[in-house]
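CORE FACILITY INTAKE
Project code: CF-77B
Contact: R.S. (postdoc)
Sample description: multi-component assembly, two entities in total
Requested service: structural model of the whole complex
Turnaround: standard
Below are the sequence entries exactly as provided by the requester. Do not edit them.
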Amino acid sequence: MSEYIVEMRNITKRFPGIVANDDVTIQIKKGEVYALLGENGAGKSTLMSMLFGMYEPDVGEIYVRGNREIISSPSYATSLYIGMVHQHFKLVSNYTIAENIIMGIEPMKRFLGLLPYVDIKSANEEIARLSSEYGLEVDPTKRICDVPVSVQQRVEILKMLYRDADILIFDEPTAVLTPQEIEFLLKIIEGLKKAGKTVILITHKLEEIKKVADRCAILNRGKVIDVMDVRNTSTAEMASKMVGREISSERKKAGARYGEEVLVVQHLTVKDDNGFDIVKNVSLCVRQGEIVAVAGVAGNGQVELADAIAGFKKVSSGKIVLNGKEIANKTIRGRIQSGISYIPEDRQSYGLVLDFSLAENLVLKKYNQEPYARKGIRNQQEVELFSERLQKNYDIRSARGNQTIVRSMSGGNQQKAIIAREVEQDSSLIIFVQPTRGLDVGAIHNIHNQILAERDKGKAILLVSLELDEVMALADTIAVMYNGQILTCEDATSLSIDEVGQYMMGVVNI
Amino acid sequence: MKWVKQYEETIIPVIALLLSLTVAGIVIALLGNNPFAVFANLLRGSGILPKLRYAGGKSMLTDLCSFLNYWTPMIFAALGVAVALKAGLFNIAISGQMLVAGFTSSVIVGYSSIQSVIAKPLVLLISIVAGGAVGALIGWLKYRFNINEVVSSIMLNYILQYIVAFFISMYYVDPISRQSRAVSDESRLTLANVEFGGYRYDIPLGMIVALFAIAGVQFVCKKTTLGYELGAVGLNRKAARYAGINVGRTMLLAMFISGALAGLAGATYYLGYFASIQPKVLAAMGYDSIAVALLGNSNPIGILFASFLISVIGKGSTYMSSTSGLDAELSSVIISLILLFSACKVYIRHSINKATDKRKARVEK
């Protein structure tokens, strides 16, 4: 029996135009927390997808518990006691937690020894037992649609445990969680380790690795750069290895010089799809050269506020004034033309037409304007020149330049394309919603610099972010939203990170 | 193998076609006939290969002209399907739109004594408006009430079929043929029985319009902002809205254009290839056109080839039936096979990718 529970030797996996994994070898010991660290597109998820049987490697061998295995499907991986929590959960939302967990391996009983039925009672008991054993705090009888995202994630963990998995893969588990929930999850992972499970953690958040991981493999452009003992390595060291260069975490931010008021929101109320007020009587002002960051825990109305300003959501009452003009009744295009750029939270379903080429996506908001079109006839040549210029200036990398289908590009480059397009609009107001979600340290760094550069050019910037670090690093003014209301709106220098955190939890009297 | 990737869009339909013809060939062989002879008879029936004998006043060119008359509405109908598909909509009401367009232009122009120079353009115009109106209605229902266009299309097909049948039976019926009365020669888009060099021909004027329509649709899709909007709405409605495109208006417009093209199909079918309307029957061409658009990859040039092929099989069926002694319905079987295999596009692409990947891996080794 070999010392390692999982060994992936000389794995190579190609996709059209890219090598996702290039001769990667990793060896994971039983009972350790093993982290895979790397930028977006470094090949972490691909590598684990092969271990979980979603892809097969082009070259290379996988050994599990010392045996050579050809893992051809997730169900085969499950039979090897490998489990995976995906970034996007795979749950049936109107089933109960227990029903989701037992799906496919339902415990059966026979009524009067004849009619088979699902023994949900014993399943509930078994799940409740597992839940308390690992401190997951999950009620198996609740329905998925009634529980928050963090609980859904724990349901996914239970799904693996219920199937007796002892090799647990987590793909970016903290991307969707609040700081408190992250703490809780890390505790769970520690508990799993104590119970003798092997945990593989895909992440690009260094603090998490520092807290829970034993060893960490760093991937860059599909190759393993280094495998480190986490205890003896500093986060700065890991960060520089990960991006392949030194990163200064201290950013020089020039003093803000505010100009005129660009965006004034007065007593804005917005209803959600069910008719409830999701934004309640919000007033806000963004000036030239100012970054106003709206902080808050997910789902407190920040995104709806941004959507209402950009015209995606109807305003039920209140005023939105841009450069002195009321815009609350304008169409989306009217608002784009009056000077609003918008980087949406969900870049793949709102920001891009994934099956269009890169050039067509870069011209998405200008396709009908001169010189890209005249009297309804498009000028392909101008579009391509424009697209090439943007790719060069904003370092957008792709396999086939203008002709690249955006779906095939990495997340970081997709976001670069959106930001390039929106910044090139030369709007007086730029709204960034979660601009760095799911991106790696290097890309985040670049995007932050871009946001600051736009501010220094005199643009008014509204930043909606769930990342407290991002808010603290960039904001000139911080507005904290809780339950649809702005609890405080103050100069960033007068608020500490703890104070902002408390406002986010709805604690008003500090 | 790079070229495979490059011409994938062309190669896949060709593979689908070869597969379906192979299966059709097997079916024919099982029926005890020589598949090649059957295919040749289909071509002969469409005036592409010479027949052994011709009746008086007829030649291969006569058959070819007749074939062109049959082919023309198919082009329009398939273009109609393609334009709607471009915007992510499925227009199944092509038959209904053809019928309404054919009926209104028959009533307004066909049964009047308007001169040929005015009558023919007027027929085209009325068909565009009538077909477009039905299309726009479906688009409006989708836009205003979010009614699935497939459902409303299917239901409208029935409604229109029976309304038109009612009016034909009540007011416009020919007591002998039990069809609508024949329209005037002035209004017909086909010049019937033109004598030339001892032979008679049906000159298909609509074909010229159809070629312009192919070029027009190609131009709109590739070169105009409207084409860009249709594509954006078809591929990602949310992103189109984000870009400031009025999604509802674009879908309505797509359905209008789709319906207008179907209307032209109706004009060239009921006032071209035929001169009358058979009540209570929807043209099968309206459904075949969906197969044509899929086979042609929703691309106007692809549709030109695909509609040619399907029309040959449809048009040649009568002659094939009489010479090979097989049922004319065999062509429906062949067309269905083509549709079936062209629906397997994604699978064929997957197989090609797998084959090229393997080859690449072997070459690298």
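Facility notes:
- The mean pLDDT of chain A is 88.
- The radius of gyration of chain A is 25 Å.
Invoice: internal transfer
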